[in-house]
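Hi there, hope your week has been kind to you so far. No rush at all, and the record is pasted right below.
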Amino acid sequence: MRAVPLLHIPAKVTVGGFRAAGIFASLNGPNADSDEGEMQTEILLEPGSLAEAVDERTRQARANGDLLPIETEQEHITDAGVRFLVRVTASLRRKEGDKRRPAGGEQGRPASPFLPPEPELTVAEVSTGHLAVLNKFNVLDRHLLIVTRAFEPQETLLTLEDLRALFACIAEYPSLGFYNGGTVAGASQPHKHLQVVPLPLDADGPAIPMEPLLAIAARGSVGRCPNLPFAHAFARLDRPVAAAPLEAAGQAAALYLNLLAAVGIEVVESDGERRPSAAYNLLVAHDWMLMVPRGKEFFRGISVNALGFAGSLFVKDRQQLEVVRTAGPMYILQAVAGSGRQGI
């Protein structure tokens, strides 16, 4: 693959109509000191504690009926050199039809189930700005949501603080982090939340089914993987996340902006907040990041989120499974990926 050099942005250059210095200041979060770039939040998660905390909270939540796992059957479909994992379930309709609704939002904000999150599902304080919460309707064990303590829209830019919290979690055990940037990208809640799922995704193949197609790229650069047929940008971190999670998060914050630019997504201002100009999915693994711009959420009624681009799809029933077999998983990913110019 031809690696695209990092976008080294001088402080006075504008990107998407904004001074780059202001954009990078926003990566320090809403409470950051933009002059000093000093973080106003700190990591509270004790290293080595998350797996035990997740397992204990899961045990209690299951016993008390607070966790509602979605039972699935697994199928495999090989396409374009990837052994896709497709989980088939009818109980997704239970999630869609769940009659409980969070309390109404304040000051014109949307309702949020994370203000506050259910205590029975809350696992840990990750940072002074983030909590780790079990996914109530989980398909995978140890499926965590990393939610902001205060309301932030899901469509706003990720901040350095968001990435520090995410990396602190994925450094705890083999796992994959991801972000659905907008409803078109599969986000089901308006309150900002990143997600962490354990690896392997599939016990019978690569830990991440798509990983064999991720070409070896120069570390610290942004480019494309020639074997991925959908729009994307890919980057490798200098060091594995587990080796130095907070250092890796700092590099990832810069790469994040470069990835957005590489897929044609600009930084725009909306309602006084800096947001990406289009929806996208972001995957963060042990030493790489993959971003995919999104054009639409559904393919013939099948919702695709970030895990689809890791090689894992979810369908409601056998009829949808046959749609995936007939069309091919890789074609579906091509169909829902965008050019970076669609709205969020």
